[in-house]
Amino acid sequence: MEQGTTRKNDPMIMQLFANVNAIVEDSHFVYSSGRHSSVYVNKDALYLHTGVIARLAQLMAQPYQADQIDVVVGPVIGGVILSQWVASHLNQRRTSGETLAVFAEKGSDSLDKQFAFNRGYDRYIADKNILVVEDVLTTGGSVHQVVDLVRRHGGNMIGISALCNRGNVQPKDVGDVPIHSLIELSLQTYSETECPFCQQDVPVNTVLGKGRAFLARQKAQAQS
């Protein structure tokens, strides 16, 4: 099976991912975007291990001046965990004041899938310096929504910090905000129609990714 290629990444960080099997290869995965690949970044494997995610969040916070960041914002679900850990590490380096951690969530209404600040978190954004955190960047679409949300509420975007950039997402893709990612992976992905694994009848992975939903849709289409 053709596999993705890895750019020059810190071996220590790559080992942290490898230790918990957070990068899975040699299978047939379906991403949320609908594209197929033989490599999957299993971010959920990281969240099982508090020591690992704490260390990675420390590295995510490292490039930023602690006193400069007022609020860390993460999109649900993984971003909630990261916002807490990153803010905690920033607070350990602050000389005064406190860095807060909040999260953005999508509306419960099926017609409203845009991110919003609920629970009164919008009160902590205006005129504040904001760092947005995310686990995996694929297209940058979700993070771009959060950046736009921050700006609508009067926040000043300082940067975006991510565990992994697997989609070659650039600042222009996320509202011209600087991006810092711990690792970058250049993965070969395919549309459903061009996917060589589909053509070779390689079984779809139904444990990781969106394989189960993909197969259910295929079955429904075949029966219609």
UniProtKB/TrEMBL annotation:
It is an enzyme of class 2 (transferase). Its EC number is 2.4.2.10. Pathway: Pyrimidine metabolism; UMP biosynthesis via de novo pathway; UMP from orotate: step 1/2. It comes from the Bacteria. 5-phospho-alpha-D-ribose 1-diphosphate binds at residues 106, 134-142. Residues 45-170 form the Phosphoribosyltransferase domain. GO terms for biological process: 'de novo' UMP biosynthetic process; pyrimidine nucleobase biosynthetic process. Its cofactor is Mg(2+). Belongs to the purine/pyrimidine phosphoribosyltransferase family. PyrE subfamily. This is Orotate phosphoribosyltransferase. The gene is pyrE.
